[in-house]
Amino acid sequence: MAANDPTPGDLAGPFDRSMSVRVLAPGLFLLALAIMLFTFRDGLVNMVAFWESPEYSHGYLIPFISLYLLAVRLELLDSVKPSASWAGVAVVLCGLAGFFLGELSALYVIVQYAFVLTVWGLVITQVGGRGLRVLWPALIFLLFMVPLPRFIQWNLSNDLQLISSQLGTSFLRLAGIPVFLQGNVIDLGNYKLQVVEACAGLRYLFPLMAFALLCAVMFRGAVWQRVLLFFSSLPIAIVMNSFRIAVTGVLVNSYGTSAAEGFLHYFEGWVIFTLCLALLFMEMWALARFSGRSLDEVFDLDLPGRTALPGLTVLLSPNRPLLAAVLLLVLAALGSFAIANRVEQVPARTPLTAFPLKLGEWRGTEGEVPRDQLEELKLTDYIMASYARPGLDQSVELYVAYYASQRKGASIHSPKACLPGGGWVIDEFSQVRVDGAGPETPAGDALEVNRSLISLGPQRMLVYYWFEQRGRHITNEYLAKWYIFQDSLLMNRTDGALVRVITVLPEGSDVEAADQRLQEFIRVAAPRLDYHIPGIAPVGAASAAID
Fold first, then answer.
1. What angle do CA 323, 326, 329 make, to 5 degrees?
2. Which of 106, 123, 192, 198 is nearest to 157 (CA)?
3. For residue range 437-459, what is the model confidence (pLDDT) as tens digits?
4. Which residues are registered as beta bridge partners of 388?
């Protein structure tokens, strides 16, 4: 044995790639993965639940495609001479810190991204930075299995709905069909097409972006061609979704609503996605021709062979960084038991069913939220009531949605994101101060609320709303999410509510009178909400606990 050769016991040194993989090596690596799956179990279960939705149904395929990319790229490892790296242990440590941060907060998405980061760290411990430059496509691809945060998805969905509605309307007009667009509602005269969340195109966009990344990795072309191939998935998904909406409108105009309903049900699935894939392959063909080559020359689905075995040996070989990472994972797994037994605190409160229907001169009539909407909202308690006052022609509708916990997939739906989905157009949006409605402070007792003037054709409504978050009155939905994160860590609470008041504006009515009507009602109603929406509970105050 030469003086510079590593001894069999030197686990941090280079590996003898001619040796067969020892039994301990794959066992140790697989043990690390098993501990990870156990530690991150709650976040992973939540992630798999999202895969049941059409937008993320491709999630089941992502781990297998990542394994395929990993196997293919292993053939290139030997050429870069990878080595074990302690930097991977640092990445694993960051991933585990993200796990505890996500578990202690209300955001499962942090746990899910922390899982991906920990997988990255585990691989880096084995191959180092040089190996990472080879295996990065397989690691990056894992990001597509993590769902977007719900509030980001809602906002993105609403934006895509508006774009799809506008493009679909343009296609219909090019076809010579008279059409009128009201928000997300396409009026064909005898039928109205509602471009709802299912028509936003997200169910095509996310899987198409994942497939486009796979194509970009397998495409043997210039870097700019690969980048173009990936990012083109966004306009392809939007245009094809708008085309589907337009074809539905043509069928309605020609054959009636029954033909359109059957077509819409069938065409919204694999047919439209297959057409998106066809456009993607046409783009690859065009890029290949631009480079003077055929598609077969630039796109080849390699299959891993025996040449991948040396790289697999490197990936599975034991070393000190891997042992350190396994030790960290064991400690995190033990710590997960303590977090699992942590009970979220929810202060005692009076149910909203007891909210008074008599507020000064205002008299209310209680209403109900449809059952299908309640299943989507996942709220804990709510009140919906219409209040009127003598001498006023128009009533005021109060809606309060309370959530005892916003941890497990339940969260407040912002009206700014939801209203456009119903076809309403936001004509004005601002914040106003309602004097005499807020808590008494040195600066006064004003309550700042969001003010939105919305319309749907000739109908108009004025909407005021704000978020009640553990003693805070908030108008910014992103700030509300931040306080959920902060208070979950520091107070072990995520309860909160949305408060919304609406009044109808008949044609020709005065908007200033509607503002005055809503503000007068808020001055009476807002103080009563303190009994039903907990603020910052004083020390010793009664509270409840939920699992």
1. 155
2. 198
3. 876 555 557 899 999 998 876 78
4. 363
